[in-house]
Design brief:
Oligomer: heterotrimer
CATH topology of chain A: Cytochrome C Oxidase, Chain A
Shape of chain A: globular
Number of domains of chain A: 1
CATH superfamily of chain A: Cytochrome c oxidase-like, subunit I domain
Distance between the termini of chain A: 15 Å
Chains: A mainly alpha (545), B mainly alpha (101), C mainly alpha (218)
Strand content of chain A: under 5%
Helix content of chain C: over 70%
Strand content of chain C: under 5%
CATH architecture of chain A: Up-down Bundle
Helix content of chain A: 55-70%
CATH class of chain C: Mainly Alpha
Order of helices and strands of chain A: HHHHHHHHHHHHHHHHHH
Number of helices of chain A: 18
Mean pLDDT of chain A: 94
Number of helices of chain C: 7
Shape of chain C: elongated
Low-confidence stretches of chain C: none
Largest interface: B-C, 45 and 50 residues
Structural class of chain A: mainly alpha
Radius of gyration of chain A: 23 Å
Low-confidence stretches of chain A: 1-5
Number of strands of chain C: 0
CATH topology of chain C: Four Helix Bundle (Hemerythrin (Met), subunit A)
CATH architecture of chain C: Up-down Bundle
Chain lengths: 545, 101, 218
């Protein structure tokens, strides 16, 4: 049913006013917005450090900053972008907001725990900010010992504590999602009728719950070593620094799947609605999400090929790492097949989805080069690796984040963003992104090491291109920031289902009431049943498109 | 479809408790016997048995729904993955005869 | 099915049964995170014990096996009183519930006191890692690795015990206020799961820390 009323009605935004009603809310939708504001601020901060890095790299000499300061730039860029932006991003904003609605529930299973998760992220961020203002940390986001445990004179502990706390935010969100999806689905909503967005977040939550605790205990052991000067990773006491790497990457490899799986869930939704077709191979896409989550735990050693881990372990991890590409490839094939003979409309969210599919594929394929032990020995710790993961994280995850934000913005705020400006920014982001990061593949292959602030003259052209790209990319991010805020007051009022999409979240008003549904819906359709939707709308005399 | 609803009798608990104490005494005494390489295995077998008794009967996993049992099994499996794959490195160091490999 | 108007039913759940199932599943998933949390420490232990078996045995023999075994038994008793507490809740016996919860707390406290004695003893013997560490014999620095892990793992375990005591105290308070009944005792149930889990951690810590190579040195 499409409603065209523009009368203001009581919704989750207007149900209560005042700062206490936001800071003490247990409404999953408000908590999603709290997260949205928080991670946007962290993104801007992380972006600031990226700017400083790219500025320094304009010239071959280390002339903007000292190498010590540069070390702090890339450390903070990494720590903030990974732990304070990417890991929470889609799950904490869109996951929180949408999952209860998508399954026909009034809230998550543990609403108060949900609020605690947000406070934990803020507290974790506060510790990291403290470390930043007090003088920074220079170990790299990977905190390798013994530098981080013994030799670094920077604020390692404060940052580590911040990550520890933020980690629990992630764990509790994952726990909440798993219980919610198992126990609170509406009648008739079987697992294989769930939107793929939900499947993606279920898989993500499995990783959060199984992996993050290992990072937590690793940080505890690191803190004990640094604080009490006793050795667990200290070679002088018979400790093994490579053990730190094993324990660190046991989490941090699956962590990259925490960062990409939710965005794959978003892309599934976007491709379906903007091709007006059910997702091809639904079960394959659903299972591939869980497969990525499970299998992603078996490959961490591919970050350690040159660490002095045994060759045989390297062989095992290299071999296993080839296979983790398969479920991701399955998704890309299925999205492509969904587009085939679909009725495609090029709205902004779809543009971001297209960007994702192309750039993620490039990033993913370069991952295979890195999984190949023989190749990795040459490109490890070069800009090839940097380009690889930025293609996935920025070209992939961040694009899907923006796509999802545009897509669900009318649902969250009852307002449309301006389509013209949005399309322009999507284009600017795409062009800026490629100009920034494609040269980095070349740089890395030619031998430019990562984490270096000075480099041989011959690399300057590529670095200048990359920095130019970064400035374009920055513009692409600033424009949406402006028009999104503008739209809150001046954007066109959005109907309940502006995209004529399937999905329970579109059956509620925009913005939704606090309790989401007046009556618990009963589900009788498959997900993405666009044929049924088309019939329904034909009967009501509504034109779609 | 619900979690266990039937109440387990205190007698069952008492039986399990006795077994747990017996296993503790056993593992302590066995540690004084020279079993060579088997010592670790025996100690772990006893510990795992003790754990299973606590989990199945004190924590009601025996009476729980399939999902709960899957969650427990999954957690234990993940611990094994962590230990096993890490040890593939430690256990194979020096096999190549090249320093640092 | 239980009454929809049960005071314990939170508004976002449809039935009390759904709420209890969610709470139980939630606690089990939390315990899985704890398996992985302690698991990381066990991984470090596994690595170093496999690298330095003799040093670990020598260091392990310096721990008091009697106190360790007694503490293991104490925790098992506390797990027994905990299941009896749950049983009391299930059968509506309020006074017994409070009694068994207090008994569990008592035994937990006994465990911590004995642990405190042990740690103090280690401090006196200069077996606490750090600048004052001193270990006789050829295995000095690798023994320090053992003791680093010993204190880290028993320390984390003790921290979880203290948190458990806090949870039990809250449960006692809630019991005395009449918050639990035959129909609603979920917090007791899930807290019991947590308590048993902490017990299970110790069940592994005891043989792995105290019983290495005892047959050589006794």
């Amino acid at each position: 049913m499409i409603t065209t009323t523009t009368e203001p009605r009581a919704n989750y935004l207007t149900s209560d006013f005042g700062i206490k009603s936001w800071l003490l809310t247990t409404d999953h939708k408000r908590i999603g917005l709290l997260y949205l504001v928080t991670i946007t601020l962290f993104f801007i901060l992380g972006g600031l450090f990226a700017t400083l890095i790219r500025l320094e790299l304009l010239t071959p000499q280390g002339d903007l900053t000292s190498s010590e300061t540069y070390n702090k730039f890339f450390t903070l860029h990494g720590v903030i972008m990974i732990f304070l932006f990417l890991i929470p991003s889609i799950p904490a904003t869109m996951g929180n907001f949408l999952i209860p609605m998508m399954i026909g529930a009034k809230d998550l299973a543990f609403p108060r725990l949900n609020l605690l998760s947000w406070y934990l992220l803020v507290a974790g961020g506060a510790f990291t900010l403290y470390a930043m203002f007090a003088g920074g940390v220079d170990t790299g986001w990977t905190f390798y010992t013994p530098y981080s445990s013994t030799y670094s004179n920077t604020y390692v502990m404060a940052t580590a504590v911040g990550i520890f706390i933020a980690g629990f935010s992630s764990i509790l969100t994952g726990l909440n999602f798993i219980v919610t999806i198992h126990r609170m689905r509406a009648p008739g909503l079987t697992w294989f009728r769930l939107p793929l967005f939900v499947w993606a977040h279920y898989a993500t939550s499995l990783i959060q719950v199984l992996g993050t605790p290992v990072l937590a205990v690793t940080i505890v052991l690191l803190a004990i070593e640094r604080g009490f000067h006793i050795g667990i990773f200290d070679p002088a006491l018979g400790g093994d620094p490579v053990l730190f790497q094993h324990m660190f990457w046991f989490y941090s490899h699956p962590a990259v799947y925490i960062m990409i799986l939710p965005s794959m869930g978003v892309v599934s939704e976007l491709v379906s609605v903007f091709a007006r077709k059910r997702v091809f191979g639904y079960e394959f896409v659903a299972f591939s999400s869980v497969a990525i989550a499970v299998y992603g735990f078996l490959v961490w050693g591919h970050h350690m090929f040159v660490s002095s881990q045994s060759v045989y372990a390297g062989l095992v991890f290299s071999f296993l790492s080839f296979f983790v590409a398969i479920p991701s490839a399955i998704k890309v094939f299925n999205w492509t097949a969904t587009l085939y003979k679909g009725s495609i409309s090029y709205r902004t969210p779809m543009l971001y989805a297209f960007g994702f599919i192309g750039l993620f594929t490039i990033g993913g394929l370069t991952g295979l080069f890195l999984a190949t032990l023989g190749v990795d020995v040459h490109v490890h710790d070069t800009y090839f690796v940097v380009a690889h993961f930025h293609y996935i994280m920025v070209g992939g995850a961040l694009m899907a984040y923006l796509g999802g934000l545009h897509y669900w913005w009318p649902k969250m705020f009852g307002r449309m963003y301006p389509e013209g400006w949005a399309k322009l920014s999507a284009l600017v982001v795409f062009l800026g992104f490629n100009l920034t990061f494609f040269p980095q593949f070349l740089l890395g292959y030619l031998g430019m090491p990562r984490r270096y602030h000075a480099y041989p003259e011959e690399f300057q052209v590529l670095h200048v291109l990359s920095t130019a790209g970064a400035s374009v990319l920055a513009v692409g991010y600033v424009i949406p920031l402006i028009y999104f805020i503008w739209s809150l007051r001046y954007g066109a009022v959005a109907p309940a289902n502006p995209w004529h999409a399937t999905g329970l979240e579109w059956k509620t008003p925009s913005p939704p009431p606090t309790e989401n549904f007046e009556f618990t819906p009963v589900v009788t359709h498959e997900a993405y049943d666009y044929e049924a939707l088309a019939q329904e709308e034909e009967q009501e005399g509504v034109r779609v498109g | 479809m619900a979690e266990h609803e039937h109440v387990i009798k205190p007698k069952t608990y008492l039986l399990v408790f006795t077994a747990l104490i017996a296993l503790t005494i056993a593992t302590t005494l066995v540690s004084y016997v020279d079993l060579g390489a088997l010592s670790v295995a025996v100690a772990l077998v006893i510990a795992v048995t003790t754990m299973l008794l606590v989990a199945l009967f004190f924590m009601h996993v025996y009476y729980s729904r399939r999902l709960t049992q899957l969650v427990v099994a999954g957690g234990l499996l993940w611990l094994v993955i962590l230990l096993l794959l890490t040890m593939t490195d430690i256990a194979t160091r020096g096999w190549l005869g090249v320093p640092g490999k | 099915m239980a009454s929809v108007h049960s005071p314990a039913l939170r508004h976002h759940f449809d039935t009390v049964e759904q709420q209890k199932d969610a709470s139980t599943l939630g606690m089990w998933i939390f315990l899985v995170t704890e398996i992985m949390f302690f698991g990381g420490a066990f991984a470090a232990y596994t690595v170093y014990r496999s690298l330095y078996p003799d040093a670990f045995a020598a260091a392990s023999n310096e721990l008091d096996i009697v106190l360790g075994a007694v503490n293991t038994a104490v925790l098992i008793v506390s797990s027994f009183t905990m299941v009896m507490a749950v049983y009391s809740a299930q059968t509506g016996r309020r006074k017994a519930l409070a009694g068994y919860l207090l008994a569990t707390m008592f035994f937990g406290l006994v465990f911590l006191v004995i642990k405190g004695f042990e740690w103090h003893h280690k401090w006196v013997e200069h077996h606490v890692p750090g600048p004052h560490f001193h270990f006789e014999g050829p295995y000095a620095d690798k023994a320090q690795m053992f003791f680093s892990l010993y204190f880290a793992m028993t320390g984390l375990h003790a921290l979880h015990m203290v948190i458990g005591l806090g949870i039990l105290a809250v449960l006692v308070w809630m019991t005395l206020r009449g918050a639990f009944s035959r129909e609603y005792y979920t917090p007791v149930d899930v807290s019991g799961l947590y308590w048993h889990f902490v017990d299970i951690i110790w069940i592994f810590l005891f043989p792995l820390l105290y019983l290495i190579g005892r047959h050589n040195h006794g």
